Amino acid sequence: MSQAPSSPMEPAVDSTAGQDPEGACILFVDDDADIRQATALLLRRRGFAVVGAADPGEALSVLAATAVSVVLLDLNYTRGATTGAEGLECLRALLAHDPGLPVVVVTGHSGVAIAVAAMRAGAADFVMKPWKNDRLVATIEDALATHRRRLAARQPVGAGGPADGAAAPADDGMMIAGCAQTRDVLERADRVAPTQAGVLLTGPAGVGKTALARRIHRLSAQRAGRLLVLDPRLGEDTVAVRLAGADARDTLLVEEIGDWSPALQDRLLARVQAGGGARLLATAREGGAALRASVMPDLLCRLDVVTIALPPLAARGEEIAVLARHFLRLFALRHGVADRTLSPEAEEALAARPWPDNVRALRQAMERATVMARDAVLGVADVAGPGPDAEGTEAGTPDAAPTLARSEKAMIEAALRRHGFNVSHAARELGLTRPALYRRMARHGL
């Protein structure tokens, strides 16, 4: 839990020698609303923009929606906690999303030992509670100045990247671990990220394969280079141009390799065999025998040094609600509307849905609910599927059940047709087990 600074409301100095915040935005994460408010007042008087978060989950949502320059991170959130474990886990998540983000940790009960552990984990600096306001501001300014120097050294003038330490654009590709399966996926990805090994990310569409590939790139030794997305949907000529322009500093992200034509696979293999040192990351909806049947063995050998399978959303249990709350916070910030929360009934309804389009469908549903709901607490009708349907009935009305049933039937029929009525392949795409798909087929008379 938080301790108040000794004098959070002491008069702020009008100017500080050498100070030049340049509109930098500070994210302050602390469970004590009074401390957040007092510190925000201090920092705003020193020229900083300030956003607050009450816990690590909210901090990740704010970071996804806001261009942040420095994070001020308290280390304990559960009443009576003194180990700093919650803050250290949040620190790791923040740096995985943006490895260059300066994080200043706040220690009170945790003491110097946990501050040292935070520094080893990547924190830029620390302050002790109760703090002196001048010391706090100086620490934040030092962290920001160091960050700007690092960016300037890495980014040549006129290269078109962030200038003078400006905050990176907000990015909602945040990887949220709300269940054991996802925590295991992120642990494996973080372990392989610093190496040069090829990584194959498998799972149905919409589970977050591309977002995970970007996380691996951000944590790699080649993060200063480009992440070149090679997607045949952009056109084979585009892929060829990007391949030809890649060098040893870059990472190649091969999207849905199972869909690549033999000619394009030949071109990629030739580029890889020619050398150049670019790292390979790849995604595929299916792995195993299905992928071996569609990808050249020599190429697959280069791509599939380490395989990480992302589970479908429906298999992630409690993570559905965790992600839903994250998206609600994200879109409330992005669209400037009141915060939304989920009723217990809405959480149950979300957990019961099959989510054939996985995380991206949940994201869309929460954005729709954020902007369209009349009340702050969302009910079942608010989180139902989109409408209106072909007959003009909107989902979420008393007549919504037939609409949802027809939507499910149409999705199952489409998946079966795409896979030549191979139930195993269709079930995998839909994120269902074979028995579950058979039950739904029987329900819809398929």
From TrEMBL:
<dbReference type="InterPro" id="IPR002197">
    <property type="entry name" value="HTH_Fis"/>
</dbReference>
<dbReference type="GO" id="GO:0043565">
    <property type="term" value="F:sequence-specific DNA binding"/>
</dbReference>
<dbReference type="GO" id="GO:0005524">
    <property type="term" value="F:ATP binding"/>
</dbReference>
<dbReference type="GO" id="GO:0006355">
    <property type="term" value="P:regulation of DNA-templated transcription"/>
</dbReference>
<dbReference type="GO" id="GO:0000160">
    <property type="term" value="P:phosphorelay signal transduction system"/>
</dbReference>
<keyword id="KW-0547">Nucleotide-binding</keyword>
<keyword id="KW-0804">Transcription</keyword>
<keyword id="KW-0902">Two-component regulatory system</keyword>
<dbReference type="InterPro" id="IPR002078">
    <property type="entry name" value="Sigma_54_int"/>
</dbReference>
<keyword id="KW-0597">Phosphoprotein</keyword>
<dbReference type="Pfam" id="PF00072">
    <property type="entry name" value="Response_reg"/>
</dbReference>
<feature type="modified residue" description="4-aspartylphosphate">
    <location>
        <position position="74"/>
    </location>
</feature>
<dbReference type="InterPro" id="IPR027417">
    <property type="entry name" value="P-loop_NTPase"/>
</dbReference>
<dbReference type="InterPro" id="IPR001789">
    <property type="entry name" value="Sig_transdc_resp-reg_receiver"/>
</dbReference>
<protein>
    <submittedName>
        <fullName>Putative two-component system, response regulator</fullName>
    </submittedName>
</protein>
<feature type="domain" description="Response regulatory">
    <location>
        <begin position="25"/>
        <end position="144"/>
    </location>
</feature>
<keyword id="KW-0067">ATP-binding</keyword>
<dbReference type="InterPro" id="IPR011006">
    <property type="entry name" value="CheY-like_superfamily"/>
</dbReference>
<feature type="domain" description="Sigma-54 factor interaction">
    <location>
        <begin position="175"/>
        <end position="371"/>
    </location>
</feature>
<dbReference type="Pfam" id="PF02954">
    <property type="entry name" value="HTH_8"/>
</dbReference>
<dbReference type="InterPro" id="IPR058031">
    <property type="entry name" value="AAA_lid_NorR"/>
</dbReference>
<keyword id="KW-0805">Transcription regulation</keyword>
<dbReference type="Pfam" id="PF25601">
    <property type="entry name" value="AAA_lid_14"/>
</dbReference>
<dbReference type="InterPro" id="IPR009057">
    <property type="entry name" value="Homeodomain-like_sf"/>
</dbReference>
<dbReference type="Pfam" id="PF00158">
    <property type="entry name" value="Sigma54_activat"/>
</dbReference>
<dbReference type="InterPro" id="IPR003593">
    <property type="entry name" value="AAA+_ATPase"/>
</dbReference>
